[in-house]
Amino acid sequence: MNLCLFITLLLTLTVSGSIINYNNDDDDAQMWLDIDLSIRNIGSRMNMNDTETNNIFTDKICFPDIGCFTRSGPMKHTTFLPQSPETIGTKFYVYHVSNPKLEHEIDPHHLQTSPTSMISNGKRLAFIIHGFGNSYTTERLVSIKDSLLSNTDDIETVIMVDWKRGAAKPNYIEASVNTQVVGRQITFMVNQMKNVLKLDPKNVYLIGFSLGAQVAGFAGKYSQTEYGWKYGRISGLDAAAPLFEKYPGSFLTKDDAIFVDAIHTSAGHNLIHGEIGFIEPYAHVDFYPNGGHNQPMCHNLLKISCNHYASVLFFDASVSAHNVCHFMAFGHCPNWSAFTEHKCTKSDGQMGYLADHFHMNGVQYLSTTNSYPFCNI
Known about the structure:
The protein is an alpha/beta fold. The chain has helices at 3-16, 29-40, 85-88, 139-151, 172-197, 211-227, 306-320, 336-340, and strands at residues 60-63, 67-70, 91-96, 99-106, 124-129, 155-162, 204-209, 231-237, 257-263, 285-289, 328-330, 347-350, 362-366. The chain has two domains: 41-250, 3-Layer(aba) Sandwich (Rossmann fold), CATH 3.40.50.1820; 264-377, Alpha/Beta hydrolase fold, catalytic domain (Rossmann fold, 3-Layer(aba) Sandwich).
């Protein structure tokens, strides 16, 4: 079935109220339609909403603090230049373990007057980066923030990155290209913290969901080319594949941080089936729970984004339930079929927050349950 026809049917059912309400972060059929239509119309002037940066006579654009972008850069296959930082409107909100609900906006140019006491040099600093159509208030990402501040000993501060204007529906192409700008903005912020607050970038941990994972990848690339340092860790939560997979230089890889781990939960290219995540491994360790798609809590065909958001649920549970739940995974396993046939017997990895506690790499398989805390062990 054509995706447009399929999702139109879902939206019709939604409007009639006969099945499900899609006005939430978890299941947005319109979002999937936006992605499909954007990709189908790639190269068309109808997608060029920012007439300044995407003027057909402009091949290069430069911005203060984060440098220049060209049409021949890593996103050249889209033909787009990114929007300006002013248009994207990226903001950084910091939260501290002393009061996880209290937020403060911080500005990289005014760190000395910001609540810098909330940032400890001896602890790990986490950034959480949302994806397409989300914001820093997306409920399930806020839950990760709360879990990190309540259930870990090595994280006292979390920064939520809000680039909702640059990631707004309906233009997925524009949002994809904007990941370059936001990635550089994060790295500029961290480098300012390094210079002003003596923050060690090795203690900085980027957690990116969907397009947010690609933002983290660009942050990791820019930190090395511009400043000569690496982030300590990046976690890609079902990194967005459309316009990234198969385009070298555009997506998160294991070269972008000292340690990169990935959770694949909607691997594939069939949007009708809710497949939007990377198929191929790209990290130091790539976890494929339940084979990387068809997650056990996602039986309802109408919840088209369920598999994609499962990566967020699993990661959150790996933090909030870490005392009772261990997502033990199996490496040295040729494929998912071998795992299901019990041919993989050596468990040597753990998916989620504690992944960097294990000395393993490569592809790892595991199964989960269909309800919180999701682990089998």
